[in-house]
Amino acid sequence: MKLYHCPQTRSSRAVWMLEECGADYEMEIVKIMEGEKPAHFLKDNPMGKVPALVDEGVVITESAAICAYLADKFPEKKLAPAIGDPKRGAYYRWMFFMAGVMEPAFIQKAMGWKAERQGMVGWGDFDRMLNTLKKEIPEEGWLVTDHFTAADLLVGGTLVFLSQSGLFEMWPAAEAYGARCTDRPAMKRAQEKDAG
User: What's the rounded mean pLDDT across residues 176-187?
Assistant: First the structure.
């Protein structure tokens, strides 16, 4: 497996997930912030974004898709409820909530964008997104099952990252949940690789 990665970006989620899986992978740093996009990288990923994972000739982009792919590739790690498990629906909800609601709502708020027709934006708005998280983030434990899953990696990790923006304050349950997610040994290993 090969991961195209740029440190301190959304791509760090993929590094964390690879570490959670105990995957054997190589990493190629692509300095996208400096405009570096080698031809072989663009051949694998014409969007020119990171992360991009190549596994046995299959290219997977988008951090949530990479996390879902890896969770299914390493079922023994139990980072996703099994296919057929009723909890799989909630797992999918949170995987896509991060990518389809959390990030766009945050970016809209950070950039000061106004939606002329609110019904046209599929993520709703920042306040509704935040209120949903306030109702759903558990005071103890995890979002979907009785153990950590890829949904926690995405939602918890993103919540911690977004909290550093100053656009909202973490509430006690979110602080505790974020700490449970980011205090994991795999996250620490990913951070070391990101820094190195």
Answer: 96
